[in-house]
Every structure is written in C-alpha cells, then in structure tokens.
Amino acid sequence: MLYRENGQFRTSYAADQQIFPIAQDRWAILAIVVFAFVGVPLLVDEYLFRAILIPFLILSLAAIGVNILVGYCGQITLGAGAFMAVGAYAAYNFHIRLDGLPLLVSFLLGGCTAAAVGIFFGIPSLRVRGLYLAVATLAAQFFTDWVFLRVPWFTNNASSGSVSVANLQILSWQIETPTDKYLLCLTILVVFALLAKNMTRCAIGRQWMAIRDMDVAAEVIGIRPLFAKLSAFAVSSFFVGTAGALWGFVHLASWEPAAFSVDRSFQLLFMVIIGGLGSIMGSFFGAAFIVILPIMLNQFLPAIGRVFGISISTAGVSHAELIIFGVLIIFFLIKEPHGIARMWSTGKEKLRLWPFPH
Amino acid sequence: MGREFGEVILDLQSVSLAFGGVKALTDISFNVREHEIRAIIGPNGAGKSSMLNVINGVYRPQQGEIILRGQHFTRMNPYKAARAGISRTFQNIALFKGMSVIDNLMTGRNLKIRSNLLQQAFWWGPARREELAHRAKVEEVIDFLEIQHIRKTPVGRLPYGLQKRVDLGRALAMEPSILLLDEPMAGMNVEEKQDMCRFILDVNDQFGTTIVLIEHDMGVVMDVSDRVVVLDYGRKIGDGVPDEVRANPEVVSAYLGASH
After folding, report:
1. Do A220 and B88 lie within an 8 Å CB cutoff?
2. How far apart are the first and last CA of chain A?
C-alpha cells in the first residue's frame, strides 16, 4: 500500500524524464545515500570497510563502466581488467612524476589515459563483433600485463615490480582510516553513477543502445557507428580506469600487475551479466552479488553446519563456497536471464498493483 | 485528383547493382518528384528493396548516379542520406527492441542533437533543454500516429502492427523530406492496412513529404500512388501512372496477371 503512484501527476516532460519519476523511489534512494554517508561510518567496523564495503564500491564503479560498453552498447569486452590496470598505473605515474598534482586530478587523468587506450583497443569493434571482439579485447589484457611487468618505466623502476603509494591527501583531508577511504570511494561512485545515468538517458545513451539493438537501422537514421562505438569504449574505459586507480591507491595501496589479471575482467563481466545488462542499478546488484556473497557464505556456512551438527573444515568451507556460488549463478541466469535488475523492476511492478495480480 | 507536384527531387540514373555474379539491378533509371507518392512494385526478388537500399546508401551501386536536389552522388552512404533528409522504414521491422517507444522515436531526432557528451553527462542546460524540446516533437509524432497509450512500452513487447507503426514513427521523427517505406503493410489485417494508408496519405498531405513506397497489395498501390515503377529481375519493365501500368502487357504477364 505504501508503494503507489496514484495522485502523482507528471504535468511536464521534465517531470516525466526524471531519473526516478515515482516519489517513493526518490525518497528511498535519497535515504539510502544519506544512510551510506552518515549512518554507515557510525555503525560499521574496520573489517567490514576493508573487506567488503570498499571493494564493493570500487567494483561497482568498474561494473558501471563495463555495463556502459557491454550492456548499453552491446560490445562485449574481456579487457576490463586491463583498463583498470591502465587507470591505476597511469594515475600512479601522474601522482609521482608531477609534484603537487591533486590526488583527484591524478585519478581523473588515470581515467582519461584508460579512455585513450580503450579507444585504441575498441577500433577492432568497427569490424568484428561478439566473441571475436571479446578475443580482440583479451589482447588488451595480455598486452597491459606484459607492459607493466616488463617495462620498468611504468613502475618507476621498482625493483620488486610492485608499486605503492602513501599519504593520500585531498586538500587538507588526510585519507588514512578506512572510514576516510570509504567516504572517498562513495563520493566518487555517487557522482560517477549520476553521470552514467545521465548519459544513458540522453542522446548518447540512445545512440549506444541503437547500435546494440540494430546497427543497420541506427546507421540509416544518421548514427555513426564509429562515433557511437568508440565513445562507448572511451566512457567505459574512463569509468573502469578511474575504478582501477581507486583500487590501486585506496584499496590496495601497493600492487602489482597480477591485481588486474584476466580474472578481474571475467569477474566484472559476470557482475554486469548477473546484475543486469543495460542497467546502472544492475551494476550495483551485480557487484554486491559477486563481492559480498562469497564472504557471507564463508562466514555463515560453519554456523549453518553447526545447526545440523556438522562441523565443516576450513577447506570444506572454501570448496562449498565455490559450489554454492556457482549454483546460485546458474540459478539466477536460468530464472532471470536479464539479471537481478530485471527481477527488481518486475518486483516493483508487482508491488505497485499488490494485492491484485494485474 | 488535381494533385500538384514540384520539381524532380530525386533522380536515379542507370543504376546497376550486383552481388558477385548476381545482378540485383540492371541499368535502372527513374525519378521522384517533390510531394508525390511513388510506388515500386514487382515480384519477389525483383530488386525493390535493393533499390531502396541504393537510395539511402546501404548498398553502393557499381554504376549509375543518384541526383538529390541537383546534387550528384556516386557514392551515397547512410549518414549522408540521413543528413539529406531521407528516412526509411524496414520490411522486417528494424526497431531497437530493448528501448521504449519514446526512446525509439527519440533516436530519430539524433541528427538534430547539438549538445555534446559532457553536457549530456551533467544534464547541463543545453542538453536538458534539447531533451525536452525533442521530447515535445516526438510527442507530436506520437499523437499523429495515435500511439499515446504505448509510449513507455518496450517495443519488443508490442504486437506486429503497432511495431510497424512505431517504425514509421521513428522515420517521421526525423522530419524527412523523402520517406522510403519498405512494405509498410506487409502482414497486416484490413483495419491495420486502412490505418497505415491513412497515415501515409496524411504524412504526404500535411507535411508535404515525398514518399517512395514498396508494396504488394495492388489495391493499395493503385489507390494511393501517383506514379508506379515496375521491376522484374532487376530490370525496369514499366513506369507511369497507375492506369498506364495496369494496362502495360509486360507488367501484366510478369506480375499482375490477367483477369480471367
């Protein structure tokens, strides 16, 4: 009964084109954002920040980037990890080589560098599509792995091959505690998610989706595939690259190329597939599913086992975790191929009519 | 009917198109005058759709020229054609299935968007104003085609007849000067055909749009079109007003068939 839009009349196109046209949605989102900024830092302990919340926020950002490319523009990519690496290493180089460059600017320049690299590796998309394109973007993955491992300049000639950053600071704000890091990531994520949403509901987003759904028809109405595809690669890589910079600087603080291996690319791709292709909200769901669920399983399996009088060994837990996780993925994909975001919107549709079925 | 036409707006001169050894179009010339409804008819595989694809640059003919408002094009491409005010619908509906009706129509406004990516990302003044202005235009098309009730529906969920109408809507949202319709009434029932005919005539009448139409329903073609081109095996076998074409023995034997 609470979720009704009766009486909410939208009398202008501006009101109709809002991100959340239904008042309840607006309030709910506002409440969640306020809670994330104010409530969470008061309630949550350090472990939860480090192990769950910060990775979740950063990977959500990366997943939004991947979703722009795969979900909105329909160009499948296995190079997300590579673009994260480019973002991280580029931001690192800007950070150490240009003295006094503000941290946020380093992040954004890292993102821009990733965008440029993304455009380069997006060029094959003008000729090939589907799995063939996936293979072409996989080349980006191996290429960056190799570059950051073998070319010492990028790692500032670090003998161990790993790079590290310390004393992060924005203006006079020292980013030291997990709470600081969490707030930094959250702020960037909220801003970027808003930008992504705006793009996808504007002309550029429609160009991407048109190319995804029917490229010949898109061309006939005057959409240039070159621009649409490469802009999707650029924007996507910018998001992913910024996420990579955050991952390196804020989450890891010291990292080597293995942090951005092909596993990461697959992980991000699974996030958007499970979360929901072509949905910004879905990127959050997907990131939550992939980041949080394994940890939850890990925490709760022994407890559940104890209830039934079974004691599970540590190795058993980690095996069972993988099995259950895999089964859940299959279940979700069979039950709702369009991802959790679609389940969410179907659920909301039902709720609007509840208790009536139609 | 007392209909008045303008100058020749689109002129095709000895266009030939081949795919490898298969000759799709052989030395075809015909013209379209401003404000007229020009039909292209012919049996299956006669090259009708190829003809439209040549006009809006999806196919590049090996020979021949397209003259559009006095401008010569030997190599047309879809982007240039769209810029020149040519829009089209497709035989097998080519809508953007994952998008709502409104978004599909809004893509038709794409060429008129001036704001850049950054302005759009920030929902900045010009981008926002443009979005609203184009939305208002699109709503006019929606009113015109009487599809208000489905404006928010994803087109993949719509029945075939309505999808055809949305396809026409997307072409209209471009405010074209020449509209190419590839079998707009294929697979429709009588009421849907009547609606579609009404829309085509209204577009022609109210907006002055020149229309090139492929259609198999001879009743419709003979009623609505001003002049008819008949193709068979990629060659032109007839051209003229409907009555002339109907009386042409070659056309009768190739396509129309004699009445017994």
Report:
1. yes
2. 15
